[in-house]
Amino acid sequence: MSTAPQSIDLGNGQSIPIQPLSTRPEQTLDMDALAPELAPLWDALETICVTGCCGIDALDLSPEQLAAARPKLDTAAICSGLLQIQARLNCPDLPLVVSQRLNQYLDRDAARQLITHLLYHLDA
């Protein structure tokens, strides 16, 4: 799993800071298990590299790429999955989010900001 990036690039000079991780693995929210409907989104955004190599840095999360991917996706299902994750992130017992698909661990605040960014650009 990738833990190296210090921020998630959102394009247009915007980024989400990623905090150093210091929690036990059992205190995680498995994003892939909770919302498998996000897989086509990750596939559509995996244009810079592959997540097996670069983790979340392999994704182009820019507004332009999200706009280009949007017509090809079931945005209602994806937004539903994102909202499920967002709701679970309110639980203080889950300070860490994991995604095998993205090869990434994220702190809760970074995951919240990422979900907010995706919802903003996909639920337009």
The spatial strand order of the largest sheet comes to 3-4-5
Roughly how much helix do the residues carry, as a percent range?
40-55%
Number of strands: 5
Give a short account of the largest sheet. 3 strands, mixed
Measured distance between first and last alpha carbons = 32 Å
Order of helices and strands: EEEHHHHHEEH
Give the number of helices. 6
The domain count comes to: 1
- Could you name the ranges where pLDDT drops below 50 across 5 or more consecutive residues? none
Beta-strand residue fraction: 15-25%
- C-alpha Rg (nearest Å): 13 Å
What number is the mean pLDDT? Answer: 89
What structural class results from the helix and strand content?
alpha+beta
Shape: globular
Biased composition (Polar residues): 12-21
InterPro entries: DUF6331 (IPR046294)
Region (Disordered): 1-21
Protein name: DUF6331 family protein
Q: How does this structure look, described?
A:
It comes from Comamonas resistens. InterPro entries: DUF6331 (IPR046294). This is DUF6331 family protein. Residues 1-21 are annotated as: Disordered. The structure is a single chain. By secondary structure, the chain is α+β, with helices and mostly antiparallel strands. The chain has one domain (27-122). Helices cover 41% and strands 16% of the residues. The chain is built from six helices and five strands; from the N terminus they run E-E-E-H-H-H-H-H-E-E-H. The protein has helices spanning 31-34, 39-45, 51-54, 63-69, 75-88, 108-122; strands at 7-11, 14-17, 28-30, 96-99, 104-107. The strands form two sheets. A three-stranded mixed β-sheet has the order 3-4-5. The protein has a two-stranded antiparallel sheet with strand order 1-2. Helix 5 (75-88) runs antiparallel to helix 6 (108-122). The protein starts with 6 loop residues before the first strand and ends with a helix. The model has no long low-confidence stretch (mean pLDDT 89).
